């Protein structure tokens, strides 16, 4: 039977399964969100904002991540080696992403002089919608456009994001130092970022 003729519950389940595979998620679907005509993901997995910080001895190297930003510029995670990098996975159709964006901007503004960079990963999204999201939210740091979800797949053997939104913090030596699953808040993010920024290296003073 053609996909278009399947009953709605079956179609929804199939789409949900495809989204989970692309995002490397391990839990069931939660919360319906329309994703426009991107082919994705009228479902997403919502995290609870829980965080894990990894001791230096337990940190794994971040994979090589590179691509084109929403502004059309080439950018790689390795360009920021020597800085702490907060990597945030988001989508324009994700309500928790919209809610946490002001927090990310606030922490970015406070910690950039301490050698902390931010990099968004826009996943499973429509390019026009993602660009409009950044304009409307006045996002000042770059985001890679990753419609297929290849960046999250690159982290599958280390510390996968597991939800939309998710945030990974990469230390100055390119190792994964922390993960937040779900939307974060100011206190939760600064409690993670501040000690990692203070670990040493050039311009490592905290604000």
UniProtKB/TrEMBL annotation:
Places the protein is found: Cell envelope
Record GO terms (molecular function): antioxidant activity; oxidoreductase activity
Pfam family, one: AhpC-TSA
UniProt keyword Signal, yes or no: yes
Signal peptide: 1-35
InterPro entries the record matches: AhpC/TSA, Thioredoxin-like_sf, Thioredoxin_CS, Thioredoxin_domain, Thioredoxin_ResA/DsbE_sf
Domain Thioredoxin: 56-198
Keyword Lipoprotein: no
PROSITE patterns associated with the record: THIOREDOXIN_1, THIOREDOXIN_2
Family matches, as SUPFAM superfamilies: Thioredoxin-like (SSF52833)
Name of the protein described by the UniProt record: Thioredoxin domain-containing protein
Species of origin: Nocardiopsis ansamitocini
